[in-house]
Backbone:
């Protein structure tokens, strides 16, 4: 029985992935490191700290992790200020449809909580969600199940009765580990990720509504 839907944010609700990729690449180039944009997809769904610690170790970056995170955030925020945040097509209609069908909603994102609140406020969708949790707030980030287990606990629902919407390999694997149903969103505008652990894979959020979600439990 469907009790709640748990949304990832970046790449599912808001189209922030290009800003992340560009800001990470721009900062690496400051240290003389050049990689393909596709390199960064391995870090989708992880926390900023994990990502930059891994890249610091791999490329022997001389700056401390907290400085790398802060500098990347400044670059990304400047890009967002210049170009503005845009929702993923179909995301807001889906959120409203689920809310109108009285299905509790939460955002469980690896992004910092302040970024989550800024994004939903910018899109005027904050009121549709009952709970927000950041990867910074749990012990282990995706692909560990902690963030989805925390969301289910705070919504007072059984994780096995939750659906997660995710677009990354790490996020889908986290949902799988939490024993949640998972709708894997394969965005046709980005390189394909391994979403094989999802219950179902879609390429268009407009194909999902409350009935679609309920039918996953039949």
Residues:
């Amino acid at each position: 029985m469907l009790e709640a839907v748990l949304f990832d944010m970046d790449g599912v609700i808001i189209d922030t992935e290009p800003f992340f990729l560009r800001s990470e690449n721009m900062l690496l180039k400051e240290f003389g490191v050049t990689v393909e944009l596709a390199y960064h997809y391995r870090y989708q769904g992880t926390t900023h700290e994990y990502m930059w610690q891994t890249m610091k170790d791999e490329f022997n970056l001389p700056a401390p992790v907290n400085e790398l995170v802060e500098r990347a955030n400044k670059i990304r925020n400047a890009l967002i200020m210049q170009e503005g945040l845009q929702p993923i097509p179909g995301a807001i209609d889906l959120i409203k449809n689920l809310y109108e069908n009285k299905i509790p909603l939460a955002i469980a994102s690896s992004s910092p909580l302040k970024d989550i609140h800024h994004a939903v406020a910018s899109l005027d969708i904050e009121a549709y969600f009952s709970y927000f949790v950041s990867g910074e707030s749990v012990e282990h980030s995706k692909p560990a199940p902690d963030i989805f287990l925390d969301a289910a606990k705070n919504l007072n629902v059984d994780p096995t009765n939750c659906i997660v919407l995710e677009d990354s390999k790490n996020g889908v694997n986290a949902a799988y580990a939490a024993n949640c149903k998972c709708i894997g969103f394969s965005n046709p505008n980005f390189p394909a990720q391994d979403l094989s652990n999802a219950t179902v894979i879609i390429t268009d959020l407009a194909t999902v509504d409350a009935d679609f979600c309920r039918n996953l439990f039949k």
User: Anything to note?
Assistant: The chain has a mean pLDDT of 94. The longest helix spans residues 65-83. Strands lie at 4-7, 105-109, 131-134, 162-166, 181-185, 200-202. The CA atoms of residues 23 and 74 lie 9 Å apart.
